[in-house]
Design a protein that fits this description.
With 204 residues, the protein is of the alpha/beta class. It has a domain of 31 residues. It contains four helices and five strands. Strands 2-1-5-3-4 form a five-stranded mixed β-sheet, covered by helices on one side.
Length: 204
């Protein structure tokens, strides 16, 4: 049996009311769900630190801070240490050495009597007996006198003449009789003995 129109209208109004409730509930769910997400997103966004935007010019903060004045570098010191004066220590020894003792003068070699050559003495002065006097002095000194006479000629000074190899004997004879000059024998003199010629300079 068909329903009356009034009942139909009530059914339709009931359906509309139900749909409206469902829509309201769905809208509330959607609204609360979205607000929860938005709050989380807002919290995340609130905790994040915004990055500073790059600036095109230099920072005014850094420029306003005064920079420390550079300290001047001290001059480099020399690497070599100054040498200190050596400490002078007193010495027990005297600073001035005593003068060295001069060695004794070398004594002339004395020729044994047996090895001495013969001697001839000549007088080249006006003094008589000079040759004999000097010959006697030579004999007393250990010399063998082979002759004594006068000499005629020009002689520079009183001299003991010696042949080759008899220089040492001539020096010793000159010391013994006081003659200060020796010289090699002349061509006209004998070559196996010493020849003494006395001139005016002889004072012995």
């Amino acid at each position: 049996m068909p329903r009356p129109k009034d009942d139909r209208g009530q059914v339709l109004s009931s359906l509309v009311a139900v749909l409206a409730v469902v829509a309201i509930v769905a809208g509330l769910l959607v609204l609360f769900g979205t607000r929860g997400d938005d709050s989380t997103a807002d919290e995340a966004a609130g905790t994040s630190t915004p990055s500073p935007k790059p600036t095109g010019g230099p920072s005014t903060v850094g420029a306003s801070v005064p920079r420390p004045t550079p300290t001047p570098t001290p001059p480099a010191q020399p690497t070599t240490a100054p040498t200190s004066d050596p400490t002078t220590e007193p010495s027990s020894e005297p600073t001035t050495a005593p003068p060295a003792t001069q060695p004794p003068a070398t004594q002339p070699t004395t020729i044994p009597v047996a090895q001495r050559p013969a001697v001839e003495v000549y007088n080249n002065t006006a003094r008589k007996g000079l040759a004999d006097s000097v010959a006697g002095r030579a004999r007393q000194a250990g010399w063998t006198v082979a002759g004594a006479d006068n000499w005629h000629g020009k002689i520079a000074g009183s001299t003991v003449y010696y042949p080759p190899g008899m220089l040492a004997a001539a020096n010793q004879l000159a010391r013994d009789i006081g003659v200060g000059r020796t010289k090699g024998a002349l061509d006209n003199m004998k070559k196996d003995r010493l020849t003494v010629i006395l001139t005016s300079d002889y004072t012995g």
